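Board notes, transcribed. Complex of a protein with pyridoxal-5'-phosphate.
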Amino acid sequence: MINKSAAALPKSYLFSEVGRRVGEYQKENPSANIIRMGIGDVTLPLPKACVDAMKAAADEQLCAATFRGYGPDQGYAFLREAIADNDYKAFGADVSADEIFISDGAKSDCANIQEMFDNDCIVGVSDPVYPVYIDSNGWNGRLGKFADGKWETLVTFPCTPENGFIAAPPVGKRVDLIYLCFPNNPTGAAATRAQLAAWVDYAKTRGAVILFDAAYRAFIRGDEIPRSIYEIEGARDCAIEFGSFSKSAGFTGTRCSWTVVPHSLTVEGEPLHALWTRRQATKFNGVPYVIQRAAEAVYSKEGAEQAAANIEYYRKNAAAIMDALRGMGYPVWGAEHSPYAWVKCPQGLTSWEFFDILLKRANVVCTPGSGFGSCGEGYVRLSAFNTYENTLEAMGRIAALR
Ligand SMILES: *Cc1c(COP(=O)(O)O)cnc(C)c1O
């Protein structure tokens, strides 16, 4: 009766354990002013243009002439066109509005996309990694048994200082479904054109499919780092991409995202666009009209400026974290095209040992890197989603530890 694979999923213990340790410490030290640098959620409010658009769309629902019921399966054309123009064509990526599927979250789409593939596909992920890619495949029995902290058939790509936390494609190893996330959560690493091209080349040669999570693309500055896998030649034949308004415009509680499935992407002659269309028609009834209007407003002049100002605020925090920690001699990665700094623990400490020191001696909460995979051991993630004042205060406290 029960889905044995689902029931066998290891307990996700990272954030509950962080919460438990912080709660316990706060209870013992009620006056401690704890600064949370583990935050994986935005903290600034929505752009005003988005809220205005949401209100106007809500008013339309009062009148039969403008009321909306079920929307189009793939999402409203006004939003798909705005995404195609502003997030793809503007960066030289060939993606049409018809290839975009509006959804309620990059997380759900990342987790659901594996339904299109056979259960004997070999799945490959980076280590450390956003856990959704693994758990969604484990849930559906695609990773074999979980024993000794490892999934039987999962392939992991170790991300280390040697490769700058960006793995190259495996040599002589079969992987069918490749999850890539750039800029990366948790390491903050941002892949170059050449690094992505190597993956596209691998996927095309092997008939593999790349599942590219671009949730943090809004943090990229300059022309060096591609914002989309479709900026790479050939990606339209081997890659699906996930985008989200969560981190780009503060929609984590508002919920709107998209998935690109190019018309030219086929697996064993089967066009994935048609298959994903069928999947969505079967299991999804769309994102509310008012929310899609709010998302569209991210591309208006005011909306774009307001969203960009929020991103700049977080980027300034990230830069402050990086500068401060580097100044103290900590090796730090990420934090440039990303809201996350990936920090090496000093003196060979484990992630949890350093977590406890930061919590108890600096009253700063981080996220232990080991919670994202075995290669994350010995690192912690600090996030830029707190206030600028708290970020500086936290850095001052960490400096005082030395
Ligand atoms: C935050 C985040 C997302 C966004 O998910 P939504 O469901 O769109 O809020 C996707 N991928 C990664 C790696 C993230 O950290």
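The chain has a mean pLDDT of 97. DSSP finds 13 helices and 17 strands in the chain.
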